[in-house]
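anyone seen this seq b4? input:
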Amino acid sequence: MKNIRATLATVWRIAMPYFRSEDKWAGRGLLAVVIAMELALVAINVLINQWQNRFYSALQAYDLDEFVREVWIFLGLAFTYVALAVYKLYLNQWLQIRWRQWLTQHYLGEWLDGAVHYRMQLKGDAADNPDQRITDDVKNFVEQTLGIGLQLLSSIVTLASFIVILWGLSNKAPLHIYGTDIVIPGFLVWCAVAYAILGTGLAHWIGVPLVNLNFEQQRFEADFRFNLVRVRENSEQIALLKGEGAERGHLLRRFGFVIANWYAIMSRTKRLTMFTASFGQAAVIFPYVVVAPAFFAKRIQLGDMMQTGSAFGSVQDALSFFVTTYRQLAEWRAVVARLDGFEMSVSSAANLPAHEPTIGVTSSAGSEAIALEQLLVKLPNGKPLVAANAFAIQHPERVLVTGPSGSGKSTLFRAIAGIWPFGTGKIAIPGKSSLMMLPQRPYFPIGPLGDAVIYPAEHGTIAPDKIKEALRAVGMPRLAEQLDEEAHWNRTLSLGEQQRLGVARALLHAPDYLFLDEATASLDEPSEALLYRLMEEKLPSTTIVSIGHRSTLDAFHTRNVRLVPDGEIHVLGGVGAAARAEPSEAR
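predicted toks r here
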């Protein structure tokens, strides 16, 4: 019961925001209509149960007129039932897609808010494969929550409706043993209750391992799919290294987890299905066996017997809700657990500054310099990496940051960008200033080239002529006439070409501060020099801070800040000071 309450509380927390959202009236209206239709279907089942008594009694009495009348009544009930069932399904699916749309937008908004998605990776939280949780798990949650909820509602209403009928039939057809009537008020109801309790207990005992098995199956499937995507994205490097054999081995090992867990699900499902199928088949004949003595003693008619069998079956089905839906409940609970873990991970990453000492990035009015005060950048494990105090990047100077790999250069850039929370101290950014970071491997979304170059700006915000001019300026004239061509640009272009497009992006956005993290390292020195001269010409009022290892970059910068391995952490002092450090795990 504790687990049930916890699961229902989680479901309530995940589900209720939609029904309080801007789409709440449409969602509530659709849900109300679907529920009303479900109740109407139960009412028709009650009417059909009563119809069975009259129909079979007419057959037993050879009453043709009554028989014909009951056939017409049945046709009317059947037509109404079919119409309600069809439109209940249609409106249910309509509600599902609206709810899924809102929930997907909600999760995407939280996941992509600021640098939450990046912090989740840094923290190493248990919310593996967010893509699957936002796609498959959201879809399954909406579909299964509505399905199971409506089934449960139908079972409760059916139970309440048919218990009254079955109780009355118990009085009409008492327990008859060896010619003696044994009067037990509602004995057919108690038979159904006992039968369902026994079945529910056995089903839970057999099927409870399916909850964890389904959770693990979703995780293994997502992990296998994620690694297939990685192979596709890194196919060139794998081919160059002739790593196909190694990749095949890695993928097959991960797929082996999928297979092994599936075999466990198969074994447990076989046992559960064997029990539920046997339980269901026995329930067909059980009520007739119970009331047969009364029928053969001519205490009841054939119609009463058939109505009893139908009513007993309805009560037994309602009471056996957990037996018949156990596997579905196990899958649903695994989905709920995965979405709960995703929400917890997103919340933990979003609230990281509130729970742990973090680097504060603030906006400073009246200053034109980026100032680092009492800054201590750490690794996620808490190890100190870079320290800086009274260090400033003036506007519009050119600063070159050098040092060995692992000295924390890139991590310092991430801290200035506001996406690296681990550490203490403050970074003051001039108010209303724009920052742009160009990494060694720039990102280009799949789509038209023009949109990829101006990313993250929206389509149409920068004139095509300006984009073409920037492409020609960075030495990519052949691409200037392909702005509408769609492709996976990170795959179709070489790294050097991608870096040229990165510089074109910087020219188009013209930020106040431009940070280049080895953003031209894949180009030859003459091409690199050409791009730096181009930035000097086109971005005269932009502060440029570069990470690089080539001595030729000195000519394009007015100050060199070098991180030297000497001591426990890397230290940046005042203006012009060198840095001291020991090599660390971060670049």
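DSSP finds 19 helices and 16 strands in the chain. The domain at 360-581 is CATH 3.40.50.300 (Rossmann fold). kinda curious what u guys think
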